[in-house]
Amino acid sequence: MKLSAACVVAVDVGSVRTGSFAWAAVDMPGHTLTAHGDDPAGAAGALSAALTDGASAVLALEAPMSVPVPGDWKLLGKGRTGEGNRAWSASAGAGALATGLAQGAWLLAEVARALPGLAATTQVPRWGGAADGGAPLLLVEAFVSGEGKPVPTALGPHAADAEAAARAVAARLAGEDGTDGTDGTDMTCAPQRAFSLLAAQARWAGLAVAGDELALDVLVVRARPAG
User: Fold this and answer.
1) What are 143's strand-pairing partners?
2) Inter-CA distances, 42 with 45, 49, 138, 147, 195, Å
3) Measured between alpha carbons, how far is residue 191 from residues 187, 198, 212 in Å?
């Protein structure tokens, strides 16, 4: 897949009231940190600005954004493939999921309000700017924990996590992180059926999203240790 210039806006989901929310924007292909902040309005503004004039952008939310829905009720709540001992349904994951649902929906609704008729997708092959004929906004999940945690910067640990997530997603989409590039995901609901919370949020917000994406796995990018 040939990728044109784009902006990746990553959000470290957390309490706005206590200052645990942060976002960072990184450009592609240069991976330069172009903006950051601690307010949802700033993140929505950065996304909207990046999507003007037919450009493309990525929103990465650091929270579980797809969950497996098994046919067998005994498997309800089981972790996704690739999560290890950090299942989406455990206390930390479930809390981030709930917070991310509200914050992601708000962000996408603001973008939809600023750019009526905007198309979004959770599927990398369907993503692209006006010149590529794809959906300009790509929605993905980021995962920053354990060895992938960055050294906190002067901006604080939440801003550091947001920047690490943005850089990891940019590197994955450009095929620069040693994985299999744009088709690689670090977690999947398969073999269970996926319920895409990203697609559901986008449709609720009024963005144009293909109906089949509600049941498709999303791209999950795990930040890896620097160096």
Assistant:
1) 222
2) 5, 10, 18, 29, 29
3) 12, 19, 17
